[in-house]
Design a protein that fits this description.
single chain, mainly beta, five-stranded antiparallel beta sheet, 0% helix, 47% strand
């Protein structure tokens, strides 16, 4: 993985995190408005999507081991 992209839509209250280049993918529900984005060809996780972000109690600092 060479880069990570973050996108937040305040109006839709939607956060998306993508790893690497954009590839054809689908969302796999993980529960509680959280989805893993998986590559169609490999099934590998290439990102995550979270809905209703403002309603969540997210700590000020989040640490994630990369590559995820």
């Amino acid at each position: 993985m060479k880069h990570m992209q973050l996108y937040y839509d305040a109006e839709g209250d939607f956060l998306e995190v993508r790893f690497g280049k954009a590839v054809a993918s689908f969302y796999d529900a993980l529960g509680d408005d959280i989805f893993a984005r998986r590559a169609e060809k490999t099934g590998k996780v290439v990102g995550y999507a979270l809905f209703n972000v403002q309603k969540r109690q997210i700590p000020r600092e989040v640490r994630i081991a990369l590559p995820a």
